[in-house]
């Protein structure tokens, strides 16, 4: 993605073949103009139009066409609220079914279909987490997209989240661990102020629900281990039956223990 540097804080819009997004004012003294190829934007807009026209795109009882429209509305609102420009690429939003501990992802560069700017929300959590929690995941992934644009992180095999990312996530009120694990939603925060204004449902818990497990992962084969955090930010890890987990929660510092032991 071409980047043109300018020696002023104001947003500079490119014209003709690209759109542009300015860097956050507190990232660097030198701002950047980020160009997004029109062909990629057009391809993604075509996919969005196709999604909107679907009447048989479902996940259980959920109408995913309606869900993706909601995600798009939130993304436009979040970009306008927390990022410095009204211009941004046309994201590809999808709902890839992943493991129960995965909340969503952003794919840097191009995805398997050759498309840019893919953001996925794990659909198994759409009915078990509040709107506020889902929107926090979306903001986390939007921040990944922004990080790729303004200061591409070094690639790692373990999903490491660099200090730059964690600092901004904390500032917004959606802190995460070094490996992307959520640490709840800070209240009050910039994010909760936005969520309150938009009437999003209250945060209820960051605990992964048992009924969110896939059909081929019956609960009897996995045992929940929990940390010592309060209920609103409690983290649950589903561990294969008979296995041991030796790990500490980065927020409370306590070792995870089998839920039945507490």
Polypeptide structure, described:
This protein is an alpha+beta fold and 262 residues long. The chain folds into two domains: 3-198, no CATH class; 210-261, no CATH class. The chain is 28% helix and 18% strand. The chain has helices spanning 38-53, 64-82, 131-150, 163-172, 190-198; strands at 3-6, 18-22, 31-37, 58-59, 62-63, 92-94, 104-110, 116-121, 222-226, 236-240, 257-258. The strands form four sheets. It has a three-stranded antiparallel sheet with strand order 1-3-2. Helix 2 packs across helix 3 (131-150) and helix 3 packs antiparallel against helix 4. It is globular, with a radius of gyration of 19 Å.
Could you name the key traits of this structure?
single chain; 262 residues; alpha+beta; 2 domains; three-stranded antiparallel sheet; 5 helices; globular; disordered N terminus
Summarize the structure.
By secondary structure, this protein is of the alpha+beta class. The chain is built from five helices and eleven strands, in the order βββαββαβββαααβββ.
Question: Which helices and strands appear, and what pairs or packs with what?
Answer:
Elements: E1 3-6, E2 18-22, E3 31-37, H1 38-53, E4 58-59, E5 62-63, H2 64-82, E6 92-94, E7 104-110, E8 116-121, H3 131-150, H4 163-172, H5 190-198, E9 222-226, E10 236-240, E11 257-258
Helix pairs in contact: 2-3, 3-4
Biggest sheet layout: 3 strands, antiparallel
Secondary structure category:
alpha+beta
Strand content: 15-25%
Q: How many independent structural domains? A: 2
Low-confidence stretches: 1-31, 203-220
Order of helices and strands: EEEHEEHEEEHHHEEE
Global geometry: globular
Between the first and last Cα atoms, what is the distance in angstroms? 50 Å
Sheet with the most strands: spatial strand order: 1-3-2
Over all CA atoms, what is the radius of gyration?
19 Å
